[in-house]
Amino acid sequence: MEKVRRSVKQIACTPASQRLFTLSAFQLSLVPLLSIASSLYSVALRLRRHLYRFNLLEKHRLPVPVISVGNLTWGGNGKTPMVQFLARCFADDGISPLILTRGYGGADEAKMLQRQLRGISVKIGVGANRVAIAARLLEQYGYVTSPGGSQKQLSEEKTEILSKADMIGVAILDDGMQHLSVWRDVEIVMVNALMPWGNHQLLPLGPLREPLTALRRADILVIHHADLIQVNDTDALESMIRKVKVSLPIFFTKMAPMHFLPCRDVSCKLSLKAVDNMTVLCLSGIGFADSFIQTIERMGAAYVDHLDFSDHHLFQLKDIEVVRTRLQELESEYGAKPIVVVTEKDYDRAPEVLEHLKPYEVLVLCSHLQFLAHKGSTEDSFKKIMWERLRQRSGVTMSLG
């Protein structure tokens, strides 16, 4: 199954004009089947959208403002880091956010968010039926529409326990662009600068969940990993986006490494210099590993190798044996014990499995989303536009400092 997943990903990354020169015979044999499936997906996509357009499927409006963070392609677009960034911004301003996430792959993203946001006023709801989860948590904690606005009446018992600051003031819909059952006030779309649209085909032949015309629904677009491509490539991508929606505000972000956590004791923080002049094996099961690998390569490691698994891959003991074999090969070739580096999502998905790599050191790379100043687009201007949209759509009178 992993071979098929890798092959499908390779096909999705390869333009049709290059298939014969790039793909293997096995991969080429999958193309006709994937093409049929992609056509059926396109029909289902249009039907679903029409059902919502004509109110045959219901859109639910939550009693608090909703910000959707989504994308047009699979994985590696920075949705979860953006959700974390927004949650911290709201919490720092005294607004308790509710994060609604689907919970793919053993809810690794939810576990990561819970760990990263520990200690701040945030609620996280995990599950496919995000409407029902939101209703339950809004009932449990109450909600407030603005600092001076209305709030849901709670029982006297709950009012004694929960202050107004504990009540939910905004909902953040993680991976929400295609989750049409929830009405949203702001639509933020994330784009992976390293592979924005792949081969421009719909799933499963390509990486697109929707055609590029869906960008017209976006209120804000963020080009993520913008630091890993050339400026002229950034300009070309921006130009392509503006052909779809000329007035769309576009921002640029990167993942800024902060420190490493050793798996043996994640309460301990290590400097980024921990990989200086080291042989490093990047181990990942994320949507797009290239950005992770490039980040480690920029840190001054002597040599960087990598083992990539499919997105949300749950590491098992048989995988650990493969990893251990690669580590032994690297140790033999370079004469020193290599170290393993994983992403936070990979760690939170299977921390106990990674312990089986002893005596090899396993480090967790911790990073945060950072806005890049480009053509007048900054973190402050992003916040300003987001709140303008909230005021226009939901009448919210708050302002984020």
Provide a descriptive summary of the structure in words.
With 401 residues, the protein is α/β, with parallel strands linked by helices. Helix content is 39%, strand content 19%. The protein is built from 13 helices and 11 strands. It has helices at 2-13, 19-22, 25-53, 79-92, 104-116, 130-141, 156-161, 231-244, 290-297, 317-334, 344-349, 351-354, 379-394, and strands at 66-71, 96-101, 123-126, 168-174, 186-192, 220-224, 250-262, 279-284, 303-308, 339-343, 362-371. The chain has an 11-stranded mixed sheet, sandwiched between helices. Helix 1 (2-13) crosses helix 3 (25-53). The chain is globular, with a radius of gyration of 22 Å. It starts with a helix and ends in a 7-residue tail after the last helix. The model is unreliable at 153-161 (pLDDT under 50). It comes from Sesamum indicum (Oriental sesame). Keywords: ATP-binding, Kinase, Lipid A biosynthesis, Lipid biosynthesis, Lipid metabolism, Membrane, Nucleotide-binding, Transferase, Transmembrane, Transmembrane helix. This is tetraacyldisaccharide 4'-kinase. Its EC number is 2.7.1.130.
